[in-house]
Amino acid sequence: MDISKRLGLVLLLILGIIILMGSLALANDKIPAVNQSCLSCHQREGFSIKNNGKEISLTVNPSVLTESVHKNNPCTTCHMGINGFPHQNVVYGSKLSTKVNKNCQMCHSNVATKYRKGSHWQATKEGETNVNCSNCHGEHDIQKLELTKHEEVELCTNCHQGEVLESYEESFHGKAVKLGSEEAASCIDCHGAHQVLGPDAKNSMVSKENVPETCAQCHNEPRANFAKGSEHVAMKAEGDGAPMYYTLKFFTWLTILTVSFLVIHIVIELVGKFRRIDQDVH
Amino acid sequence: MKLETKEQVNFSPEKGLLIERFSLNQRLQHILIFVTFIICAATGLPIKYASATWAPKVVSFFGGFSTMFYIHVISGVVMTLTFLYHFIYLAGYAYLKGPSLDFLPKWKDILDFIQNIKYNLGLSDTPPDYDRYSYKEKFDYWAVFWGIPIMAGSGFMMWYLDITAKYIPRWIIDCAQVAHSDEAMLAISAIFIWHFYNVHLSPDFFPMNLVWFDGKMSKTVMEHEHPGELREIMDELTYKEELDDDIEDPTSFKFTKSRFLIVIEILFYLAVLAWFLKKFLPIGFM
């Protein structure tokens, strides 16, 4: 190895150390100086305001901020347009999260395109519901989502309950995930995460046309038969759940009748044995 | 039963005449079936009752869901192979020794059943005269022919979902899942309530009838359990005189006259029935 190559290696090593130390310095728990002024008011405990008769807390816990992935962002990345005191154009609650929602999309443009096509945003835009980025990802405590399948299901079922949840819990996917499987499908494996669409939308993962492809993510090949039946069905005598309902009925009554018959048979034998205790026969 | 060899009749100075009712081959089939049955039940029930508080404990006992699931399917495969082997066994038996038809249901089974109920209700003084297999044993034997095709069929449909979906629409596979889950309950109930009574808890055999292990049943027990078969065997034996067949088996029927055990068991089985109906009738009337 000649001297220039060796020198090059040494320089590369030094450069590496500098980059490493630099990133370590960035990764410390210090709050960026620019946020200190915001926090000088907002870290006070019990800092709140009354809005439409509702008490709204304005406190931000600095230790929550330093643990989030956005700890190096200035507060105004998300709370854009807040400068000067008193703050102008302040909104609260769902209005705030919708407003911040737009700011998230300035950086996270790749998922934002998907999110804007999905029904969560469509319904939020029309004021029917309020599912913004923060509803799933959190606010000041925002983390890279590394959830277990079970936590994924818990996240969605904060809102999506009733028949859809009950039928999932009865399915093998639901049972496996509940018991800790990381292979079985959670909600987002079939419905997607950002571009969630109902079964009627043409490019939905769960439309009749796309179900075979969606199942094939795990189940090898997109069989047309995967779409011949429904996922979230109630065990009822009418509708898509009827075949399962009658299967359940058949086996349940077979079990009730068989076991009742067998137990009665056993008890009759035991009573007979009791009666013959004093006789010389069994 | 036709005796093939002299070895099937043994003599022990303690228990008297011993008849080998089950060959080693048959006993191994039974052991394979019951071991895999217990494993399948233990690894399947937590999936059926996934929301129960005990389910995660069983899952962690088996080392996580994936491990438990693989234990379940491997055990199911072994059970299915044992079942398939039984057909080879039957064919081989028929080829080597001529077909045995003792296990087929016959009209006398119904008469034996009626006689047994009458005898135990005090309506008759004669106990049923069972042959090689009583109707109770035939019930257990044929129940396997109902249970395993359903359990293995639905199990393989779910396990090889991709291949199944090539031919079968999804709603039928969903029905198979329901059938797998609920036929399992029927099988588990029948085994742990009925079969366990007949071989473990029955005061005649309490705590256990060991015939599953050594295949042998003493003449004393045979007289009570399989009198018809015993008569046949005794008629065939040409060397009867050499055997001192008056020795009674002192290990048999130890608890048959135990008032305490019988009363406890009557209460136990009535409680089992009440619990069972409380659990299943709401599903039945759902």
Give an account of the 3D structure.
- The complex is a heterodimer of chains A (282) and B (286).
- Chain A is an all-alpha fold and 282 residues long.
- Helices cover 52% and strands 3% of the residues of chain A.
- In chain A, helix 5 (93-107) crosses helix 6 and helix 10 packs across helix 11 (172-178).
- By secondary structure, chain B is mainly alpha-helical.
- Helix content of chain B is 67%, strand content 4%.
- In chain B, helix 3 crosses helix 5 (135-159), helix 5 (135-159) runs antiparallel to helix 7 (170-201) and helix 9 packs across helix 10.
- The longest helix of chain B has 33 residues, at 65-97.
- The model of chain B has no long low-confidence stretch (mean pLDDT 93).
- At the A-B interface, helix 11 and helix 14 of A face helix 1, helix 2, helix 3, helix 4 and helix 6 of B.
Distance between the termini of chain B: 48 Å
Order of helices and strands of chain A: HHEEHHHHHHHHHHHH
Q: How would the global form of chain A be characterised?
A: elongated
Uncertain segments of chain B are none
Of all chain pairs, the largest interface belongs to: A-B, 55 and 69 residues
